[in-house]
Design brief:
About 40% of the residues lie in helices and about 15% in strands. The protein is of the alpha/beta class. It binds pyridoxal-5'-phosphate (PLP).
Length: about 230
């Protein structure tokens, strides 16, 4: 305890996020329990994670493997850690040791490397495929057209389970402008599920600025950092 804890406003911000999530669910006839809140703790230290745990959070998201490797051992046990940022193939083995869910699988090659690492370590892993629905060159994620070949490969995986799709839309101050990218991800999921018989129940979409829109478009996981922890300074 540094004396500042409790003054950070985390509990209040979290309550506000939960209320807005519930309101978004109510607007579109969904149950609040259908949407999982992934608290993105990147750049924030273990003491802030502990504070969030004291507020009832159990699921945390990190963007970078190196940062997570230093932080997770200093955090309370029994939490669920999700990797939401880009994963390089050379960090796969470390990532498999740290994370319960990986949201950012963006190539068949990466999926193959994860399958191999999980098989060697004798563990199973849930992953989502990150799709670049906007086609913006600066964004990670596979092109929609590459999704089917990747999912086809996933049928052979025995240790990695593809549970859904994830996207990061182009940034916009206006959440309404991101709606089309969320609906496109949902439609793409529905299309490939129908044509290939895949089960992809999870849609990871929506961040601090646009999570309500994402929920209205079917998000089952929202990845929220700033609206819970406040502005990142590093
Ligand atoms: C940082 C990050 C988030 C959280 O962003 P906020 O705007 O702070 O809520 C969500 N998803 C990914 C992939 C991120 O890198």
């Amino acid at each position: 305890m540094n004396g500042l804890e409790g003054d950070s406003g985390l509990a209040e911000r979290l309550a506000g996020v939960r209320r807005r999530m519930a309101e978004a669910c109510a607007r579109c006839g969904r149950e609040p329990g259908e949407v999982e809140l992934v608290a993105v703790s990147k750049t924030h230290g273990p003491e802030r994670v502990r504070e969030a745990v004291d507020c009832g959070l159990r699921v945390f998201g990190e963007s970078r493997v190196q940062e997570a490797r230093a932080k997770i051992p200093l955090c309370p046990g029994g939490l669920s850690w999700h990797l939401v940022g880009h994963l390089q193939t050379n960090k796969v083995r470390v990532a498999v040791d740290l994370f319960d869910v990986i949201h950012s699988v963006d190539s068949t090659r990466l999926l193959e490397a994860l399958e191999k690492a999980c098989t060697q370590k004798g563990r199973t892993l849930e992953v989502l495929v990150e799709v670049n629905v906007s086609g913006e060159a600066s964004k990670y994620g596979i092109a929609p057209g590459e999704l089917e070949p990747l999912l086809d490969f996933s049928r052979e995986c025995t240790h990695v389970d593809v549970i859904g799709l994830m996207t990061v839309p182009p940034w916009s101050e206006e959440p309404e402008r991101t709606r089309v990218f969320f609906s496109r991800l949902r439609e793409l999921r529905d299309e490939v599920s129908r044509s290939g018989g895949y089960s992809l129940p999870q849609l990871s979409m929506g961040m601090s600025n646009d999570f309500e829109t994402a929920i209205e478009e079917g998000a089952t996981m929202v990845r929220i950092g700033t609206a819970i922890f406040g502005r990142r300074t590093t």
